[in-house]
Amino acid sequence: MHRFSFVSLCAVALVAVLVFSGETRTVEAVTCDVSELSPCMAAITSPIPPSTTCCSKLKEQKPCFCQYLKNPTIKQFVDTPKAKKIASTCGVEYPRC
C-alpha cells in the first residue's frame, strides 16, 4: 500500500510540474494574405535561393496554400516547379489539396 501511495504522489507531482512550469502553448490564427509571401519574390523571379525571411513566411502561410491554389490569379505563381522547389528548399511540404 505504501508503494502505491508513493507512485501516486510522484504522478501528481509530475502533473503539477507540467501544469505549473509556465510553458504555455498557444496556436495563433494565420491571416491568409498572399502579400506576406513577398519576401519570396526574389527567389521566384531569379536564380537566387530563398532567404530565411522567405522560408519563415512560407512556414507561417502554409495553412493558406490550398486557398491560394484555388485562386486562379495566385495559382499561376504558386503552382509552378520553381515555387515547389523553393518550398522544398525551405523544408515546407507542398500541399495536396
From TrEMBL:
<keyword id="KW-0813">Transport</keyword>
<feature type="domain" description="Bifunctional inhibitor/plant lipid transfer protein/seed storage helical">
    <location>
        <begin position="32"/>
        <end position="97"/>
    </location>
</feature>
<dbReference type="InterPro" id="IPR036312">
    <property type="entry name" value="Bifun_inhib/LTP/seed_sf"/>
</dbReference>
<protein>
    <recommendedName>
        <fullName>Bifunctional inhibitor/plant lipid transfer protein/seed storage helical domain-containing protein</fullName>
    </recommendedName>
</protein>
<dbReference type="Pfam" id="PF00234">
    <property type="entry name" value="Tryp_alpha_amyl"/>
</dbReference>
<dbReference type="InterPro" id="IPR016140">
    <property type="entry name" value="Bifunc_inhib/LTP/seed_store"/>
</dbReference>
<keyword id="KW-0446">Lipid-binding</keyword>
<feature type="signal peptide">
    <location>
        <begin position="1"/>
        <end position="29"/>
    </location>
</feature>
<dbReference type="InterPro" id="IPR033872">
    <property type="entry name" value="nsLTP2"/>
</dbReference>
<keyword id="KW-0732">Signal</keyword>
